Each structure stands twice: as structure tokens, then as C-alpha cells.
Amino acid sequence: MSTAVLKISCPDRKGIVAEVCQILADCSANIIDAQQHREELDEQFFMYVKFDCSELNCDRSILETRLKAKSELIGFNWSVSFKDEKKRLAIMVSKYDHCLYDLLLKHKYGELDVDIALILSNHPDLKATAEHFNVPYHHIPRNKDNREEADQAAVDLFQKEKVDFVAMARYMQILTPTLINAYPNKIINVHHGFLPAFKGAKPYHQAYTKGVKLIGSTSHYANEELDMGPIIDQVTVPVTHAHSAEDMVRAGRDMENSVLSNAVKAHASDRIIVYKGRTIIFD
Amino acid sequence: MSTAVLKISCPDRKGIVAEVCQILADCSANIIDAQQHREELDEQFFMYVKFDCSELNCDRSILETRLKAKSELIGFNWSVSFKDEKKRLAIMVSKYDHCLYDLLLKHKYGELDVDIALILSNHPDLKATAEHFNVPYHHIPRNKDNREEADQAAVDLFQKEKVDFVAMARYMQILTPTLINAYPNKIINVHHGFLPAFKGAKPYHQAYTKGVKLIGSTSHYANEELDMGPIIDQVTVPVTHAHSAEDMVRAGRDMENSVLSNAVKAHASDRIIVYKGRTIIFD
Amino acid sequence: MSTAVLKISCPDRKGIVAEVCQILADCSANIIDAQQHREELDEQFFMYVKFDCSELNCDRSILETRLKAKSELIGFNWSVSFKDEKKRLAIMVSKYDHCLYDLLLKHKYGELDVDIALILSNHPDLKATAEHFNVPYHHIPRNKDNREEADQAAVDLFQKEKVDFVAMARYMQILTPTLINAYPNKIINVHHGFLPAFKGAKPYHQAYTKGVKLIGSTSHYANEELDMGPIIDQVTVPVTHAHSAEDMVRAGRDMENSVLSNAVKAHASDRIIVYKGRTIIFD
Amino acid sequence: MSTAVLKISCPDRKGIVAEVCQILADCSANIIDAQQHREELDEQFFMYVKFDCSELNCDRSILETRLKAKSELIGFNWSVSFKDEKKRLAIMVSKYDHCLYDLLLKHKYGELDVDIALILSNHPDLKATAEHFNVPYHHIPRNKDNREEADQAAVDLFQKEKVDFVAMARYMQILTPTLINAYPNKIINVHHGFLPAFKGAKPYHQAYTKGVKLIGSTSHYANEELDMGPIIDQVTVPVTHAHSAEDMVRAGRDMENSVLSNAVKAHASDRIIVYKGRTIIFD
């Protein structure tokens, strides 16, 4: 079965589900899963439709033309993506490799519906890991004097390699607007702390000093405000007085793997809509 | 806002979502939430639609007539329920009161969208609790010699009081077919063990002897096979060697409250479809 | 079996475990459970010993005298408490009753090893609940003009009723130093947010706006800095975009019950030591 | 700091903690952590003591001689292990590699306090992974006709390589008594199901058919009864009607990694005592 995802958002109005589903029915698309959400405060409507497109009675472009015509008539935002046109992912790493291994292994097991276009690092250290998994490795050194140039080089590389979205697998660097604005809501970061509690550096040490009984990790889209983009996934695990800050770092690895790979999966399968700084995630 | 829920199930076919949504649109019903599920093995289709019915342009009966006509034409099972016609719940208890308090409190806080019709017990013990919450209390003694009569008396009482569904809040008795068959997939039981691991009596003692590191609770619809009806909700909590069987009983109370009240909420809001012994639960 | 708990803290030194255990052995006390903790940063030592005191070969006062002599000789802080001398708990409430019911029910089930001395409220509303459980109810009105007087009246009441520690079961008021300083590290508060993320008012609304994917609750000792005393327990539950702020309030109740009752249990059974603003909790 | 672990078990008697701690104090060992457990039913006593042995005033053998003498005098089982004498782990694999990667990575991060002696497989497939991590890889083919010989070859290999314990990282083969009896309570298996619910083959398919709302994984010591040895760790994750059996397999990988690596950590750090088919695990 070949599937596709249609996402719609617009001010709420009656009949929109029927009208959109009729377009799909007319093209002989079979709806497999559909979810709607209505944001109460703003009366905003969001819709996710996953459909079987293997027996379409027309070209995909015809379906898109019909959606476009309807959207202009009644007013809604829409996007459609076909599963057989996989998104291309770039993974950015520094020296920590746990999130990298996790993404590469989950990709190998068929859990991530993407092509891994490349690994980009500001260090040469993880080249052997990239080779072990047969993924191209690019090394662009980056320091406080060449951030702009390094990020522009990254943008150039990503565009050349047709990268659709980016996972910062513990990249440990603050991106410049050059890179962030080239991929708005398409760069996923993992923060090793339970946002918005502990922002910035050494969140586990902050957590230890405060004596918290839970620590967490957060994946989010990167935007210009440090560690404050739209949150995608969060996990916590219990800790006790007996956990040193180093123990928390250890406990954090599995959480970081989990929230980053969940975010990559959700983005890859087109299940996320960003609205007013929050994510709406269909499942 | 006044809302309603429409549930559909049928063999999967193209266009059904559009056709059903068109009926709603024609009646000026606004879809708030909708979920579909396709059971891969059987190619069976399930659909849940929650809609705003406060601005219907016709009688509710007209909407139902149109659904009936369409269902006869293209073949699907359907039911519609209106939130302002609350379901009436009977709570069955024995002597343990934790699940009873939990349901009465959650009802008081507005979390359970039901009218609590009555409490039925085989013991007089919990009458004061019923009175504290202003709920009618009925005492029907039950022992091994009068099970049939007691269950028939329960059925009579439930029908007189227009009971729609039943929560066995640790009733601790095995129901006869007389009662079970009068309310198929409408009697919710809570089992103080992680089914299907530990069936029958004293599951926590079985868990202790086995040395498990997790214990659980399960809510399910009661059917004629003891503790084997369709599962609705399950929870586990970690235990260690230091937990005695009595400690597990304590740890179990919160779990039992949780799985039973979750099941009552899901049933009350018409989010459950039973298919081949499994539950499909929309959320 | 009659049990007691001995807690020791001091700068770490060799042999202290043996010396302390020898005192217990000399009195014919049998150790049931013991835990030590060494705070790496400060080289501080903490010890918890639970022992069977039903076959002591001497008066309890003799045991205490020997501990005192040894502590003066080698330098350590110590306290001993006997389980049959139950702590007396005061519960402070406002109008929300879920934490109150939870504590009263868990006490009834034998899970809280305390005597509930009284319920104190700034409103008359929950008197019937207190009566249902046969607990004395005291109403001390409190507003912005009489905080000092009200808190002094509370202190007077607690001392008259020999209250050992206090649970603020959603009391919803900021205590004055008059009350806080009378019971240092003996007043337990529950904060309906995951500290230190969302301090102050309406944390669930803050969480909604931020778009978090987890919400939490925290129990902690009250001190003069609002919501910043030593943390005792924390819990989180997942939420999605579909949770309104009101839904989060609902989801929060079970968490608040859990973290508050866990804190009361830990304090009642003398398993907590506070050190430099953090809690060391033996289990 | 150099540390060691002393484990004691015996029928409960007064004074044993003091006597044992005195031996440690006499040797100038400093207790860092200690935990006791008393099994109520059998009046059996268990003790775990972690101590700093870097400033012992005598040879380690002297300490052991004193423990032996005392044990013969008052009767207890004991064992002592020194952290700088790392245990040697053999990892057994078949074709699935997720648990293998997880162990190799956690070892690399310093989370597993072992030396990885070798990887043994009945297939050649994972040789490249072993080489990537610089661990010796041994291939011993195994089929229904040569089980005995293959397991004897494994025992010979393990003894030659001074293997202390074994992790079956999804080895997918039933061991013969030849191998099991050579390493009693030293072979850790991971079962991809929540024992004792679903034993034997395809537990996720069993779980799907039953319609469970949680799936789990279990690590346990292997013994002659299939999947019934002493349980070490268990984890569950929620599933819904929308999870296919294949989805459950995916969800299971992280759980399997978690329970197996937790078991290896606990065994490696000498925190487990097996008693009557149950594990007592100090933390």
C-alpha cells in the first residue's frame, strides 16, 4: 500500500471535513486514518488525513490541483506529502554519539521513514561511526570566529544534498539565524533538561543543586530564542538524593535518544503542525 | 456548546468518510473531532465523529433517519448519542470502598459525564458513604444459594432505574449470565492484577511468590469467562523485593481507581467500540 | 513487632556504622533495615536504621542516653523515634477537597502512620467531610488584613493539640513566617506545577501557553521563599495539544494526591533528612 | 577511591550488623552505602555493604580470613568483590543487534562496570559490529542436531576466556543444561514479553490477539525451566488498538535494551542475591 498525508488548517467552519473528504473520494483515495483538532480559544481548525493513494484514478498533480482550487474557494492552508517520496534528513553532531547511534539504528530497523542524507559535524571524531553505517560524513569546523561562515556552508551543503529537515543530535552549538531561518520549524534540537525549567548550560548540575526528584529531556524546533522553540516531546525519569550530577547525565542519555527520535519520527511522517509557538501532533 | 458522538463500523470501502460527513454537513452539524481506524487483518473500518449539534438545522430524529437510510444503502453499523442525554451509571460494591470514593469524587469534580443512578451492594456497610454523596443505596444480599435471584433483582432494579451501564467497583462477586447478558459490554470490572498474567484469586500473592518487579491492574468488560472480557485499560507500577503482598495491595488501590475511572470515562463518552474481543478506544 | 527509627548525620568518618550498630546490639535491638548515604561533595554521612525494639533489654531512655553519650564523644547529630508514638498531623485546607479526601482515605486504609489531630480551614465548606471521617474541624477565617493573627491562632491551636507536622492540602494561602518558623521543615505543601518551572499562580495555564508535553506536581517543605523549599516528591504525566488548561487541572488532581500523600508517608515514618536545601529520603 | 561490595545472607539474628561492621572497621574500611533486608516469611536476613577499601590497614586476604572466621563462628553466607577486579562479560547474540549495540555503547560510556570478554554468536552476521567496537567475535554454529556440542564449546570458550557472567542479548536459542548449569544464576536472558503472562514464542502476537493495553519486557536469570528463572527487571509501555503486532515489536526494542542493561549493571555491581527463585536487588 502506498500512502499520503494531507494536512489542513484554517479558521473553523462547518462542512470542511466533508468537502475535503469528497475531493479525496472523487480521486478514489481511501482514508485510512484521520484526526481533527479544534483550538477552542482561537476557533482554529486542524485536520490530518492519511490515505491510501495506490489506486488513485488520476495523477497526483490532479489531486493537488483540486485541493488548491478548493482552498482558494473556501480558504484553508494545506499540504500533501507522499510516503514514497521520503524526506531527506541531515544529522548534526559534535562529539557525543549516543543520539547519533540511536537515529542510525532506528533508521536501520525501519522505524524512521527518511533517507539519511548526511552527517555534519564540527569535529572529525565520529567519521568511523558514519562509515560503519554507510552514511556520508561532512566536517565543517566551527568556532566563535567563523559561526556565520560555518552555518552558511551548512546551508549550502544541505541545499546541494536536498536536505528536507535537520536533527541536532547533541550538536552543542548555538545556531546562527543564517541556518535557523533557512529551515524554519525544520531543525529539531534536543535539550538535556526539562524545559522551561533549566535553560542554558549544565541543566543536570542545576537540577542536582535544586534537589529535584525528576529530571527530563525535551525535543523542540530550534528558533532564534535559545531553547525556546515549539516543544515536540518531553520525558522525565525519577532521581533521588543518591544521584550525582554525573549519574543524571547517564540517566539522561536514554531520554535524549527517546525525545529526539520521537520528534524525528513525527516530523518525518508529517504529523506535526506548528501554531502560535505550540505543536499540534497527530498520532 | 452541545455535542454528540457518531460511531460507525463496517467493512472498509472508499468514500465512506465523505458520505457520512456530508450527512452531518447537510444537517449543519460542525465536526469537532474525528478519528478513524482501519483494522488491517480484517479490512474493517471504524469511525468516531464528535460534532457540535447546537445549530442543527433539523430535528435530531431527521439526522438519525438520514444515517439509517444511508446505512441501509451502503451497509454500516452506526450509533449516535447526545451529550445532553447523559448515561445513567450503577455502581456495584461489596465492602472495599476506594474505587467507590474515587468514582463519586470524580463525578463531583465533573470528570465523569454521567448521572449516578444508584449504588448496589451485597452488604449494608457503605450506606453512609452513599448518603454523604447523596446517591441512593440499595442492598441486595447475595450468597452462594441465591445468586440467580440476587442478579435477577439487580437487573430488575437497573431497568426500573433506567441504568445504561454498570461499574463493578471491587464487587468481589462472580456475576451470573442473568446479569451479564442483560448488559453485554456494558458492565465494567476491575481486576487487581495484570491480566492475563494472574487470573482468579489473590493475584498480588501470586505476584509476590513469583518475584515480579511490576504489578498491575486491568479494567475490562465482564463476560461469561472469568476475568477475560475485552480489556479497556491497564496500568503497572514497579515493586521490589521489599514489597510484601500487603504492600502490593496498598500500591494496587491507586491503580484500581485509575483503570476503573478511565474505563467509565471512555464508556460514558462513547469512545469505545468492541470488535472480536478487543476494544477500539478513540481518544 | 514494635519498631523504631534512628537517624544519624555527621561528617564522614570510619567506623561510625559499627559503633552505632554496637549500641543497638548492646540494647538487644534487632536491625530490620538500614541505609547509608555519603554526600560526595561535602563528605557528609547520613544513616537511617530501622530496628525492632520489642525485645530491648533496657528502657528506651537508656538507649537514648547511650546514643547521646556516644554522639558527644565522636560528634554526630541523631534522632530516634518509636513507631508506637505516632506523629500527630494537622491538615490545612481551603475549598478544594481532593487532597483532603485522599489523605483521610489513605489514613483509613492504614497507609499513613499518623494520628490526624485536626483539619484547619480558612473556610467553613469542608466541615461535613471532616465529620464524615470523624476528624475535628477548625475554621479560622483568613484574609489579607489578618494573616498574622490567623497564623498565630493556627500555631496556638497546633501547640494545644500537640501537632507534630502539617500537610497543606491545597490550602491556597501564603503562610507568614509566624507559622512557617514554628514548624521548620515540618509543613508540607503541594504545588500544582512542576517546580522549578512554573512558580506562582495558575501554573497549568502557564504550561498550556508554553505548549509543554508533560505537566507535573511537586510536594515540598514550606519555607519563607514561595514554592522554593526542599523538594520531597515529584510526578509528571503526559499531555498533548488537545488538553485545555482545564483538562490539565483535572489531570493534576491525581498527581497532587500522589505527591502530597507520599510526602506525608515519608515524613511520618521518619525517612527524610533535610541537608542544604535538599532532601535525603530513605526508602 | 577504590570500593568493594560485601554481601551477607543468613537466618536473622541480633547483632549481626554490628559484628560485620566491626570487622570492616578493624580493617580500616569505610562504609559508603549499606542496605539490609529482612524476609518476613522466612526470617531470613540479607545485607549489602559497599565500602571504600583504598585505605585498608591489611591485605584483602586478611579481611577475607576474618570474614570467614566470623561466618564459621556465627553462621552466615558471604561474598566480597573488589571493584578494581572487574567481572568479565560474554554477550551471546543471534541476528538481532539492538541489545548488542545497547550493551556495547553503555560499556563505552562507562555505565557497565565490566570487561567485555567476547561476543559469541550462532551466526556470522554481527562480526562487523563486534569489530567496530574492538571486541573479539566467536562464531559457533548451532542447530537442533548439535546443541549439546555447541553449548559445551561455549562453556569451554567461556572458561578459557575467564568469563564471569553472560548476557543473552536476544540469543533466540534455548540453552541446554550443559551451559545453564555451568553458570547458575550467571546467565541473564531478556524475554520480549511481560512474564509470566506470555511465555514462549511470539509474545507480541499473543498480546495483540488478546487486546492488551500494555506490553512489557523482562530480564531474568536463565534456568532449566523456559523463561521462568528469577526475574531481575521488568518494564511496560502502553499500546492501543492502533498498534499492530509489528508496531509492538518496534516498541519492544527500547524495553529490551533497558531491562537487559539494567540486569547487567546490577549483576556487575554485585547488587543481586537470589533467594528461593526471587531476586533481592539492592540499589
TrEMBL record, chains A, B, C, D:
Top-level taxon in the UniProt lineage: Bacteria
Active-site residue list: D227
Keyword Hydrolase set for record: yes
Keywords from the named record: Hydrolase, One-carbon metabolism, Purine biosynthesis
Pathway: Purine metabolism; IMP biosynthesis via de novo pathway; formate from 10-formyl-5,6,7,8-tetrahydrofolate: step 1/1
InterPro entries: ACT-like_dom_sf, ACT_dom, Formyl-FH4-Hydrolase_C, Formyl_transf_N, Formyl_transf_N_sf, PurU, PurU_ACT
Reaction(s) catalysed by this chain's protein: (6R)-10-formyltetrahydrofolate + H2O = (6S)-5,6,7,8-tetrahydrofolate + formate + H(+)
One MF term in the entry's GO annotations: formyltetrahydrofolate deformylase activity
EC category: hydrolase
Signal peptide span: none
ACT domain location: 5-85
Family stated for the protein in its record: Belongs to the PurU family.
Record's function text: Catalyzes the hydrolysis of 10-formyltetrahydrofolate (formyl-FH4) to formate and tetrahydrofolate (FH4).
Stated name of the protein: Formyltetrahydrofolate deformylase
Species per Swiss-Prot/TrEMBL record: Lentisphaera araneosa HTCC2155
